[in-house]
Amino acid sequence: MTAPKKLFIKTYGCQMNVYDSERMAEALGGEGYVETDTPDDADMILLNTCHIREKAAEKVYSELGRYKGLKAAKPDLKIGVAGCVAQAEGAEIVRRQPMVDLVVGPQSYHRLPDLLAKTQGGARALDTEFPDEDKFGHLKARPKARRAPSAFLTVQEGCDKFCAFCVVPYTRGAEVSRPVDRVLTEARDLVDRGVREITLLGQNVNAYHGIGPDGADWSLARLVRELAKIDGLARIRFTTSHPNDMDDDLIAAHGDCDKLMPYLHLPVQSGSDRILKRMNRQHTAESYLALIERLRAARPDLHLSGDFIVGFPEETEADFQATLDLVEAAEYGSAFSFKYSTRPGTPAAERAQVPEDEKTDRLHRLQALLTRQQRALQDAMVGRDVQVLFEKPGRMPGQMGGKSEYLHAVHVAGADVAPGDLRRVRITASGPNSLTGTLL
Ligand code: 5AD
Ligand code: SF4
């Protein structure tokens, strides 16, 4: 038997890329590759890239530059670029870095084995099309290995919203949903392999409209309710959502579907209606807050998470203040905030930019407020009982770590629990990044 070839995948960006990397590793597993965690002894290096903010492409080129020595020492080494930079840059990548063997866009991963075969004779392979087929349906079935208790499952890709700052509609293409039976089959398979929590992924996951086994158009809420029937699956989450796609049934599901966790990532980006309009968000600060109110009426303990952009073109101090006001009103359990970053080809790139030091100042002020809120909500968990899905040993000896229903990291010392166990825990202390507690 020949020794397996080694595959090193470096993943950038969002959870959808994490999922894609897992599936690419499985597809290449069929070609005799096993994963390694260092590029040094790899036979193939794959960069799964992200293009959401500036300098992404430059980072990829400088990372590729680091592999020059490896390629010189081992001419058979295959180097591939996947993901959104691959989609955006295409053949330019091979032009700038001729040592790259293949470039594959996010919709063409199922063609990886063919692309790889093409490179065997030293040719370059490039595929950045948007084929009509479901790439996951064409990827080899996942092998039956045991899995960690929490898994991602991509159900939707692409975005039709065209926010004025965002490259996703260009790099990931139009919204496409996977059929319901494919999602259910994959979910059951994950559960058979030890998974107890599934996070449904999509760039715009709540815009999910998959064809059901009955031929009807299924919404995300209907999909969630069906997944909830799977024995052994304890928790369901989904991310990322757009406020305008939170339909009545999905709001209701937060109240009546026990397996749907009380945590929601619902980006708003800005609290200023003027900026929201310029961003082409198609909602107002008030409509967003009204939506949060409805969600909290359905599920009073819902923890809210969000994304914010500061320094969007033409954002004034008053606009920024409106964002701070919205944050005060909404109360976030966690949040991600970014300085606006110009993306060539997007409408906002052409507009009057906010000076960099202004952006930095606003980001610091926003993050200070968000951190305060996050910390206050986390500290308020002390003395409360939560349900923890245990995942892996903590950093301290004898400790086990897991996640609460609110996605807080929770550590318990000296407890007899194994990964995959779901146990009630009383929270006793709140640290900078996690909670500690004792088993009940
Ligand atoms: N500049 C800064 N942040 C951006 N995001 C998307 N595009 C940009 C950009 N051009 C942020 C948004 C989005 C998150 C995934 O990344 O907040 O919700
Ligand atoms: Fe980008 Fe999200 Fe807006 Fe779509 S909804 S364009 S993915 S920020």
UniProtKB/TrEMBL annotation:
All copies of domain Radical SAM core, residue ranges: 145-376
Cofactor detail note: Binds 2 [4Fe-4S] clusters. One cluster is coordinated with 3 cysteines and an exchangeable S-adenosyl-L-methionine.
GO molecular function: 4 iron, 4 sulfur cluster binding; metal ion binding; tRNA-2-methylthio-N(6)-dimethylallyladenosine(37) synthase activity
Pfam families, sorted: Radical_SAM, TRAM, UPF0004
Names of required cofactors: [4Fe-4S] cluster
Keyword line: 4Fe-4S, Cytoplasm, Iron, Iron-sulfur, Metal-binding, S-adenosyl-L-methionine, Transferase, tRNA processing
PROSITE patterns membership: MTTASE_N, MTTASE_RADICAL, RADICAL_SAM, TRAM
Protein localization: Cytoplasm
Positions contributing to [4Fe-4S] cluster 2 binding: C159, C163, C166
Occurrences of domain TRAM (ranges): 379-440
Gene3D superfamilies linked to this entry: Methylthiotransferase, N-terminal domain (3.40.50.12160), tm_1862 like domain (3.80.30.20)
Family: Belongs to the methylthiotransferase family. MiaB subfamily.
Protein's name according to its UniProt entry: tRNA-2-methylthio-N(6)-dimethylallyladenosine synthase
UniProt organism field: Roseivivax lentus
